[in-house]
Design brief:
With about 200 residues, this protein is of the alpha+beta class. The chain has a single domain, classed as Gcn5-related N-acetyltransferase (GNAT) (Aminopeptidase, 3-Layer(aba) Sandwich). It contains 8 helices and 7 strands. Strands 1-2-3-4-5-7-6 form a 7-stranded antiparallel sheet, sandwiched between helices. Strand 3 and strand 4 form a beta hairpin. The longest helix has 15 residues. The N and C termini lie close together (about 10 Å). Bound molecules: coenzyme A (COA). The site of coenzyme A (COA) has 19 residues, from helix 3, strand 5, helix 5 and helix 7.
């Protein structure tokens, strides 16, 4: 049984939020943000090709030259419950992908969702990263999550935070604007649903 089916059996609702959003970047670029679809593989591949090695490294935490077919399937064939992702497209050139946001709920801790955002280098610093993180957070909040205030939860999380500060200052600037992201021991920036009791966690 999938987690979504188990949740449904326990009466936990997962409204699918498949809306799209429009925004305008600071330089006037019109942007459409919509849920990723399986047929977005080419869009993602092309966007990845345009991403600088530094941005790729920051996103994947390792040097990645290209995305394999399996990785593209993983990134686009999602269930919109445990794994949700959005593509940001130029609204005036809908075949041009300029950013992606996603969250993935951790298998071992389903009340924790790891968030990742990528914006093409030439579009960075114009507010899109903040907008994309907020899209992910709003989606979780509207399906019943409470996102905690900024927290550093352990000595190891402190190290993650210091590491982020050194290696990814752009992300560190974005986080305080989100009003509720958590720096978590294992994974860096995550979103957390805090009000789930331990026995509920184990039962999933
Ligand atoms: C982290 C990331 C998503 C932020 O996206 P973004 O669209 O640049 O975010 P914002 O424009 O909302 O804010 C970014 C802040 O970083 C700084 N910044 C980012 N790019 C910049 C650039 N090219 N020049 C100057 N400042 C820049 C700015 O200070 C900006 O703050 P400001 O709004 O006060 O100017 C983006 O830099 C990115 O994709 N990085 C590579 C992948 C990554 O690190 N992802 C996060 C971890 S999964």
């Amino acid at each position: 049984m999938t987690r979504a089916a188990k949740d449904a059996a326990q009466g936990i609702a997962h409204p699918l939020r498949l809306e799209q959003y429009r925004t305008t970047l600071r330089d006037g670029t019109p942007v459409l943000v919509r849920p990723i679809r399986p047929d977005d593989k080419e869009l993602i591949r092309q966007g990845f090709d345009r991403l600088s090695p530094a941005s790729r490294y920051r996103r994947f935490l390792s040097p990645v030259d290209e995305l394999s077919d399996a990785e593209l399937r993983y990134l686009t064939e999602i269930d919109y419950v445990d794994h949700f992702a959005w593509a940001a497209l130029r609204a005036d050139r809908p075949n041009e992908g300029i950013g992606v946001a996603r969250y993935i709920r951790l298998k071992e801790e389903p009340e924790v969702a790891e968030a990742a955002v990528t914006v093409l280098d030439e579009y960075q610093g114009k507010g899109l990263g903040t907008f994309m993180y907020k899209t992910a957070i709003n989606n979780l909040v509207s399906s019943g999550w409470k996102v905690q205030s900024d927290t550093v939860r352990s000595p190891q999380a402190n190290r993650v935070w210091l590491n982020l500060r050194q290696r990814n200052p752009d992300t560190v600037k974005v986080i305080p604007r989100l009003g509720g992201s958590t720096v978590y021991e294992a994974s860096g920036v995550v979103l957390r649903r805090p009000n789930v009791k331990r026995h509920q966690r184990r039962s999933r």
